[in-house]
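Hi there. Long-time user, first ticket. I'm pasting a complex I've been working with (about 404 residues overall). I'd like to know whether the download I got is complete or cut off, because the file seemed smaller than I expected. Thanks.
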Amino acid sequence: MPPPRRSPKPQERRRDPERTRALILAAAAAEFAAHGFAGARTSAIAERAGVNQQLIWYYFDSKDGLYRALAEVWQRRQRELVPPGTPLPEQLRRYALEALDNPDGVRLFAWAGLEYTGTDVDHDGRAERMRPTVEEIRERVGPEVDPACLTVMLTAAAMATTTLPHVIESVCGVDPRTPEFARHYADQVATVARLLGLADHP
Amino acid sequence: MPPPRRSPKPQERRRDPERTRALILAAAAAEFAAHGFAGARTSAIAERAGVNQQLIWYYFDSKDGLYRALAEVWQRRQRELVPPGTPLPEQLRRYALEALDNPDGVRLFAWAGLEYTGTDVDHDGRAERMRPTVEEIRERVGPEVDPACLTVMLTAAAMATTTLPHVIESVCGVDPRTPEFARHYADQVATVARLLGLADHP
DNA sequence: GCTCTAATCAAGTAGACACTTGATAACGTG
DNA sequence: CACGTTATCAAGTGTCTACTTGATTAGAGC
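Hi, the file is complete. Here it is re-exported in full:
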């Protein structure tokens, strides 16, 4: 008689804290992105991750702690999105395309805006990250334009496929979630940026 | 012995269904705007309105019904916001200033975007309301620009003081909620619209 | 192998929440 | 003033939800 394999799912039982943490974080990103902080359910996160609910508290202390941990992950990705030296219209195009490549991240970022109460995990980081963009804009526009405000406008515009799907559906008459539209819209954002004189001059 | 006044608060007890309805709607606007649909609490709405909780179900059937009733109110206001014939930059300036005059409405509208699932109470209404704007833009820009997309971008840009306060805080270094900044930002939106050639031509 | 720790799990719990129920008091109408 | 209707109220109810507790097991170090 061979030694009996006690567990029916030996692979599933193997421990791997890093993997578990990552699974929970990924599931949390999807849930928070889909429903926002208040709407997200910890039970749904655990189920989506395929782990025991309690592990959420084991690794992240609270729903809030999980949310904050997520913000850090997202922050790291943002830093790597646009290599320095990329022309502005192309920067904006890529930023708009994030709606395709990382829709959860963009939604998370949008939720954070509405749920913002005055303290931001990433305040200083973002300020530093966007400074070059503001300065580049300053050099390319006239004195009547406040480059910081224009940066904000362009950021908002680039995120619109995520933040204003209802407007897009009404105004453009198409489903804003299709890749075709996202690409078209991203091109349009770049086009408008060029019209504003934000392209490289020869 | 004079006839005793039985109720200590006779004025409060006076019935006024219309007033009650309005009180609930106003309180709901504030709560939903502050926390979104999932985050809003019916108990908080009743308390803010100063009415018995049950009246929410008496008048609106459900939390969802209350939310929908609110959407209709908001919709009506939108129609009256910008009289036809207003030049585009001025339209956008006023739209951006809504963040001051009707912050709850703007927030409600922004929440609706993130919570959008494909069905919209005001789909047709908004489409019709925004058509003239799209057509006006079409006449003023070159063929490389999709006027519907530009309309979306400008809408998103005009709402940024509400949707992206965290970005504004980082990039502009000011509190996005102050009236001074809101006015400055609204002027900037109008300025950029003029730069894009959206002003009246002589 | 033994033991200690760290990871996983199952079964709660207390409170919050949307919504009901059934009674009561103001109002309109004859 | 009687009487039916309508608005208001107080006190639930079942369910959901974030979080606890306490036991169990996999793996690391000796």
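A couple of notes from our side: The two ends of chain B are 82 Å apart (CA to CA). The longest helix of chain B spans residues 17-39.
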